[in-house]
Amino acid sequence: MIAIDVESTGLDPHRDSILSIGALDMDEPANQFYGECRIWDGAHVEDAALAVNGFTREEISDPSRMTEAELVRAFIAWAEDRPKDRTLLGQNVSFDRDFVAAAAKRARVESPFPHRSIDTHTLAWMHMTVRGVLIPEKNGHDAISLDYALRYCGLPSEPAPHNALNGAYAHAEVAARLAYTRKLLPDFMQYDIPWQNT
Fold first, then answer.
1. Per-residue pLDDT averaged across 27-32, rounded?
2. Mean pLDDT, the chain, whole residue set
3. Handedness of CA 121, 172, 38, 105 (dihedral sign)
4. Considering its fold, how many domains does the chain have in total?
5. pLDDT higher than threshold 70 for residue 198
6. Alpha-carbon distance 88 to 94, whole Å?
7. Same domain (yes/no): 124, 136
C-alpha cells in the first residue's frame, strides 16, 4: 500500500495542477517519494490553495522546475517499482488519486493505481464507532479532518504550510495506529497510542 499526499493549485483535477507529490511504501516506510513541479500551461490557480501549501506564484511558474508531466511520470515509475500492493492510502484519498489520474492523462501515460483506495477518514470513523467514541459533527456531517484523526491517534497536528511528504507521513502513521495499534515512523515514536494497553 502507498500512503500519498498531493498539493495542488485548487480542488479540481481537470483545471488545477499538481504542485507536489509525497508518498511512502507502507511495507517499507523508508522507501519514499517526493517531488515538486511547475504548473501546466493554462492551469487554474486558487490563492486559497497556495495559502494552504505555501507555494508562491513565482515558484509554481519557475521554468527550472520539472513539469507536472515529468513529476507524475517519476511518481508512477517509483510506484511501479513497488513489489506489492499499489493501493493508495490517505485522508480523502480520492482527491490525490484523481489528481494523479488527471495528470497522467495530460502526460499521456496510464495510471497504475486502482480505483479502490483506503481512506484514513473512514478508518478513524470505524475505529471510533467500534470503541463507542462520539463522532464529532459539523454542518450536518462528521468532522473527522486529518488534524482530528491525528489528535485522536495521539499525534500533533500537521505542520503548516502543508507539505506533501509530511502529509503522506501523517496518513501512514494514522493508518498504522488505527488498523494495527502500532507505531510506524521514527518521527512519531515518542507519541503514545491513546488506546494501547487500555
1. 96
2. 96
3. negative
4. 2
5. no
6. 9
7. yes
The Cα 32–Cα 5 span in angstroms is 12
pLDDT tens digits for range 89-137: 999 999 999 999 999 999 999 999 999 999 999 999 999 999 999 999 9
Question: How far is residue 176's CA from residue 159's CA, in Å, rounded to a whole number?
Answer: 20
Residue span of the structural domain in which 44 resides? 2-117
Strand order, beta sheet including 88-90 = 32-36, 18-25, 2-8, 88-90, 117-119
Contact 186, 79 (CB under 8 A): no
Distances (CA, A) of 81 to 2, 32, 76, 84, 133: 12, 12, 9, 9, 40
What predicted TM-score, i.e. pTM, was given to this entire model?
Answer: 0.96
Which of the listed residues 71, 91, 117 is the one where a domain comes to its end? 117
Which residue has 488534524 as its cell numbers?
Answer: 147
Cα-to-chain-centroid distance, residue 28: 17
- Residue 196 within a domain: no
